[in-house]
Write a structure and sequence with these properties.
By secondary structure, the chain is an alpha/beta fold. It contains 15 helices and eleven strands. It is about 40% helix and about 15% strand. The chain has an eleven-stranded mixed beta sheet with strand order 1-3-2-4-6-5-10-11-9-7-8, with helices on both faces. The longest helix is centred in the C-terminal third of the chain and has 24 residues. Glutamine binds next to loops. Glutamine (GLN) binds next to loops.
Length: about 475
């Protein structure tokens, strides 16, 4: 058994740890051994933290020996490299932060370490989380464990691929327009974008602050609930984190979704969608119907078609403000050996940022400049309100909405790299959910020629429980989530 420990779920590993059938050091070593084996092909990690991991695993084993194990004690995990880790470099996969070592931990890292999590590495992403394939990483591209010539999705591609390839038991990512759900769908794992405000973003390197949320990648719905139990909740250091009490997210995972009302918004079955995705998603919805859910196949959210345009005004605008701080004067790369301070700032940005980040900064600066602000930014904010209201109205009738996670299966590396618009389109189904601030989960729902397909379930604000309940029920009668890549 011991060479397969890295493929366990959190709950299965916890059982074995608590009964002292295995130790956290063994479990962690299994992950590290597998990293050595698969990492040359997958390239999910920017930084491996083997020594730190083994030291934490020893501590976890001591906790377990005292009978004090909680569900995450001794469980190996990966963290997207936008989450600040004290003393461990945090790069955002950018040259700008290539040597940045944070002096403090992000709130989620603090909570997970306190809960006994073992950090085995920091994962690759599209630079500053801008992208859908990890091809925008300043360092290297991550490969999909199911097909190495294809992308793992993005921007949290390393976090998704790492869990899918058995490098750790779970991971965290961040999602601004789909960056957890789309790679989860592409890599056959579970990925949750929580409600805006559910998880503290203290210590998250900001992309677009009105849209960013941190969330887990796991192997099933129960594991996702276990991680959310630890990372959710209000934090005084993040003014946007919400005071809503945190329930025990595992409480209602009883397989019963009888009478639950589920709506299928037709706008999410977009033109250009691959027929295999359409079929798999509809088959999954019929499964939910068989489980007793009442499905309305004819829901309409007409403002959905505006979401992509709204996102590509709001997200770059906020990004241009957030990224203004990287000017060489505080931290990060600095090219200050110049005649004037201005020239130094210019050079820092010129060499520190990659092409996609520069494109976003230019888009955002343009949309916010006087004379254009009303025409673009203000208008986008108004449409944002319309999109939100449509979701509010839908949720007076339905407990959840179900859609594809992405219109396609994972595309080939290089296929969209020179066509930003077609890359942006790969998030049409996920962006509206960030704009509305509601929670969304992607769960494994089938394969087309060996390539994973994700199902997205969207819920009311702070109704993550509902998403877990539906996902868990689906996972009791299907086995897509238990499939592993052949690596
Ligand atoms: N792909 C989208 C973008 O490039 C979303 C990224 C994200 O969620 N961080 O903006």
């Amino acid at each position: 058994m011991s060479d397969n420990l890295n493929w366990l779920t959190i709950h299965a590993a916890h059982e074995l740890l608590a009964r002292k059938k295995i130790s956290s050091v063994e479990l962690t070593q299994a992950c590290l051994d597998n990293i050595e084996k698969v990492e040359p092909k997958v390239k999910a990690l920017v930084t491996e933290t083997a020594d730190f991991a083994l030291a934490q695993a020893k501590k976890a084993d001591a906790t377990i020996a005292q009978g004090k194990a909680t569900p995450l004690t001794g469980i190996p995990a990966l963290m997207k490299d936008v989450l600040c880790t004290q003393g461990i470099r945090t790069t955002a996969s950018s040259k700008m932060l290539e040597k940045f070592v944070p002096p403090y931990n992000a709130a989620v890292i603090e909570k997970l370490i306190a809960a006994g999590m073992v950090l085995v590495g920091k994962t690759n992403l599209d630079e500053f989380a801008m992208g859908s394939s990890t091809e925008n990483s300043a360092f290297f591209t991550t490969h999909n464990p199911y097909a190495f010539e294809r992308v793992p999705g993005g921007s949290s591609g390393g976090s998704a691929a790492g869990v899918a390839a058995g490098e750790a038991i779970f991971s965290l990512g961040s999602d601004t327009g789909g960056s957890i759900r789309q790679p989860a769908g592409f890599c056959n794992v579970v990925g949750l974008k929580p409600t805006y405000g559910r998880v503290s973003r203290y210590g998250l390197i900001a992309f677009a602050s009105s849209l960013d949320q941190i969330g887990p990648f796991t192997r099933d719905a129960l594991d996702c609930a276990l991680v959310m139990n630890v990372i959710s909740g209000q934090d005084k250091r993040d003014a946007t984190s919400a005071p809503e009490p945190v329930p025990d997210y595992t409480k209602n995972l009883n397989g019963n979704i009888k009478g639950m009302k589920i709506g299928i918004p037709k706008e999410y079955f977009v033109a250009g969608m691959q027929p295999e995705v359409d079929t798999a998603v509809k088959t999954a919805i019929k499964k939910l119907e068989e489980l007793g859910a009442i499905v309305d196949w004819n829901v309409s959210l007409p403002s959905t078609r505006l979401a992509l345009a709204v996102y590509y005004i709001i997200a770059p605008s906020e990004a241009s403000a957030n990224l203004a701080r990287y000017d060489g004067s505080k931290y990060g790369a600095a090219f200050l050996n110049t005649d004037s301070m201005w020239e130094g700032m210019e050079k820092t940005k010129q060499f520190g940022f990659g092409p996609e980040v520069k494109r976003r900064i230019m888009l955002g600066t343009y949309a916010l400049s006087s004379g254009y602000y009303d025409a673009y930014y203000l208008k986008a904010q108004k449409v944002r309100t319309l999109i939100r209201r449509e979701f509010d109205a839908a949720f007076t009738k339905y407990d959840a909405l179900v859609t594809p996670t992405s219109p396609t299966v994972p595309f080939k590396i290089g296929e969209k790299a020179n066509d930003p618009l077609s890359m942006y389109l790969s998030d049409v189904c996920t962006l509206p959910i960030n704009i509305a601030g509601v929670p969304g989960i992607s769960i494994p729902a089938g394969f087309a020629k060996g390539l994973p397909i994700g199902l997205q379930i969207i819920g009311k604000p702070f109704a993550e429980e509902t998403l877990f309940r539906i996902s868990h029920a689906y996972q009791q009668v299907t086995d897509w989530h238990t499939r592993r890549p052949m690596i």
